[in-house]
Specification:
Elements: E1 4-7, E2 10-17, E3 22-23, E4 27-28, E5 34-42, E6 46-49, H1 57-65, E7 75-77, H2 83-86, H3 89-95, E8 100-103, H4 107-115, E9 122-124, E10 130-132, E11 137-142, E12 152-156, E13 161-165, H5 187-201, H6 205-215, E14 222-225, H7 235-251, E15 254-261, H8 267-281, E16 286-290, H9 296-305, E17 306-312, E18 315-316, E19 319-320, H10 322-333, E20 340-347, H11 353-361, E21 367-375, H12 380-402
Parallel strand pairs: 6-7, 7-8, 8-9, 13-14, 15-16, 15-17, 17-20, 20-21
Antiparallel strand pairs: 1-2, 2-5, 3-4, 5-6, 10-11, 11-12, 12-13, 18-19
Helix pairs in contact: 5-7, 5-9, 6-7, 8-12
Amino acid sequence: MPAIEVKPGIHWIGVNDRTTDLFEGMWPITQEGVSYNSYLLVDEKKALVDLANTSHAGTLLDQISDVIDPSTLDYVVINHMEPDHTGAINLLCQVAPNVTFLCSAKAAPMLEAFYGVSPDHIQVVEEGQEVSLGEKTMQFFMIPFVHWPETMATYEQQQKVAMTGDAFGGFGALRGAIFDENYPDMTFYRAEAMRYFANIVAKYSTPVLRAIDKLSTIEISVVAPSHGLLWRQDPMEIVSLYATWSGYAATGGTPGVTLIYGSMYGNTEEMMNAVAAGISSAGVPLGIFDAARTHGSYILAHLWQHNGVMIGAPTYEAGVFPPVAQVLGLLAEKRVMRKRVARFGSYGWSGGAQRAIEGILEPLKWQWMENLEFRGAPGRDDLHQGEEFGKRFARSLLEEAGS
């Protein structure tokens, strides 16, 4: 994609990545892809806000060259030090060796550690500080832990464009256009923004809400994150979505069930179908995920939004079935709090899965509702109990929401 003008004198200089399988080495994007968005501000002085990763550095320079000679850059603004936004620094410095890096105080030593940038080429900016480019003025807002401690947002005052780094970003490569108004159906990009939030940012929901409060003091015409769509037609939509999603950290989410199950020989899966029927009969949203076949990225995105978690896991070597344990470990790592949870599962000669699951989830302080275990294959009575079990659990979520 060529450089695209966002507002007069502000250009999107970005690249699409459709070849990386795992973002950050762990989140699947094989089908969805991702964009790395950079922004070129052209005035009496010229500034580049954020870069791309190492493998796309050459493409980034080509994009800059569509607009200006890269050697004439005066500033590179580092909103966020993560290498998917800074990996192109070494190549850029070969072309523009005299460029000055503008960054937060916490980012400065990282620039030296990651890329050997001399302190002589680093200018630390403070909260609210302004840097003039001529008619355009950049203003900087510190938004720590969205999602690293050094992060900040850059606001161009004349055109009212907020370049927010990872805040308000999303997965999904850009499909020939960069703005929200270019897509009549936004379903894909909203869903991928939610998955990105749940995977990357949700653990830091409180700092996200602080950042939203801080940015609410300025008028914004475009929200321009480092990944995903630019929000120009309705810039507050993505801000509102992030505020809602961050709020789930305190509320547990809306009534609904994420059913995570694993089954070695089909016995727990048979019970899962009965439990799912009971949940559905209560009229709450239900997502069903086979832990052995579904990456935790997609499970986490659904689970973050809903207050109920149903776990279907057989006992495995006196513990929990490993694919289920892996997903639960991810939830513990991401500090997913304030859920109601129940569990069902099969065992052979002895139990043990329940104890193991409780151990994994204990730091999260989830509210345990019930545990339904059966030996071997479920019989007709077991399946009836499972359906009622699911129905009771779903109804408890509705009652909690209505209380």
